[in-house]
Design brief:
This protein is of the alpha+beta class. 35% of the residues lie in helices and 12% in strands. The protein folds into 3 domains: 50 residues; 39 residues, no CATH class; 115 residues, no CATH class. The longest helix is centred in the N-terminal third of the chain and has 26 residues. It is elongated, with a radius of gyration of 29 Å.
Amino acid sequence: MPLYDADGYTAILQGLLPTGAVWPRDTEAVLTKLLASWAAEFARVDGRADDLVDEADPRTTLEMLSDWERVCGLPDACSGLDADTVAKRRGAVAAKLTERGGQTPAYFAALAAALGYPITVHELRAFTTESTCDENVGDDVWAFAWEVWASGVVRGYLAADGFCSDPLSWWGNETLECMIRAAAPAHTLPLFIYEHWWLTEDGQAIATEDGEQIVLPI
């Protein structure tokens, strides 16, 4: 909030006046109206200075958002894919400025969460005699691959008026995949798996007897 409004600055200016009958303080006096016109500008400048506090923080900036993006080199190939709201653009700037790098599952989960994408990371390894039955069967190469499980994806299907070259179904999140691939260690391969609600023909979610909705990986 500004330190003083127009009335506050008017009172300050009146306090600087000499005393005497020729220096009136009543609201209808010409001198008071003159001081009030100056006070309005002082209050405006005070308010703009207060706005600068918000503009100095990329999480609350509005007028200077484009300047923050220019400094950070945004929008880039990843963040520009769906940065269609002020909140997403602010999030991209904040993520760029606070980015420190990392290679752990927690790091990539936090990286995605900063832009509003909840994910879970599963590291893979070669299948051995000590592996459990639910682990992937693969050789040593799989030690360099890891899975990114994401939810909330929109899935599309081939319509009757579609083209023969169209896929039967498609899904994904370009922004998320671009961001993860850009930050992934160069010798690794992130694999993206999206959780999709299992729906009936009329679009209703299928649930278990306990009321838990069934989610399928795609």
